[in-house]
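Entry 14. Ran structure prediction on the chain below.
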Amino acid sequence: MYEMQTISYIVNMVRRFYSCQSKEVSNIPENAREPTEKEMRSGVPEWFRVQEVADGDVYYFSTNGQKFRSICEVKRWRENLQYEMSFESDEAPCF
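Output, structure tokens:
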């Protein structure tokens, strides 16, 4: 039992490390707007900011500046965050 807990702990720490390292952190652009109702219904939190650029791309920014390139990416991040928060840990989450 102890070995399984240790393995689970190590796997979770590795996942947390790579999930923190994988997101680009930048400043939230000045021209970023609040998400629309449609974007929020699709999974973008109301506290996120959205930037539409000239070539038609849309970027989503968390409050700490993490940049997401799609709503699917935001949803995966939120699901992973909930999964990580379900484990007890002495370390603060990385968001």
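Helices lie at 2-22, 37-42, 71-85. Will compare against last week's run tomorrow.
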